[in-house]
Amino acid sequence: MTGRTLEIRTARLDELGALNALMELAIGALLKPFLNEAEIASSRTIMGLDSQLIKDGTYFVVEEDGALAGCGGWSRRATMYGGDVSPGRDPALLDPAKDAARVRAMYTHPTFVRHGVGRMILVRCEEAARAEGFTRAELVATMAGLPLYLASGYQPVERFTDDRGGTPVPLARMVKAL
């Protein structure tokens, strides 16, 4: 990646198709070392993009020369994780004085793994949440994302499985002081 420049910007609703394609690619490729095929299939139901994040202006894309390298965002809403098709979403607004901001829907194109894309998005999310008065961030990590979040200062507080997609998928709820 020498000489290449990654740029971050706010996502747009007209990019939903491209973002969903990136997520599908990331789920299929990056979870393979950690999950079996049934767990990956289940992940497609419980994960994905919540378009409310784009509408709220809290979702970002990272590009290199116009190519999507990754995406992710944060939320001031109660839903912890999951996309438009995931059951159990809660759009209630959080209170920055007592609630943690939610880091949500972080995906990196397999070509750009280990090039700083995820960290770039996390920093932007944390800065934006802090600017709105949040003092903590919380997220739900896949097993593939766990190393990035640990290296970025997030601490696991709960390990659990989500079987809403049919097969239980291992996840970890993590928190960080902002």
Q: Could you give a short description of this structure?
A:
With 178 residues, the protein is α+β, with helices and mostly antiparallel strands.
Mean pLDDT score: 95
Oligomeric state: single chain
- Major β-sheet strand ordering: 1-2-3-4-5-7-6
Q: Count the domains.
A: 1
- The share of residues in extended strands comes to 25-35%
CATH names the topology as Aminopeptidase
Second rung of CATH, namely the architecture: 3-Layer(aba) Sandwich
Unreliable segments of 5+ consecutive residues: none
Number of strands: 7
Biggest pleated-sheet summary: 7 strands, mixed
Give the distance, in angstroms, between the N- and C-terminal Cα atoms.
Answer: 30 Å
From the helix content, strand content and strand pairing, which structural class follows?
A: alpha+beta
SSE run:
EHHHEEEHEHEE
Helix content: 25-40%
The Rg value, from CA coordinates, equals 15 Å
Q: What spatial form do the alpha-carbon principal axes imply? A: globular
CATH domain class name = Alpha Beta
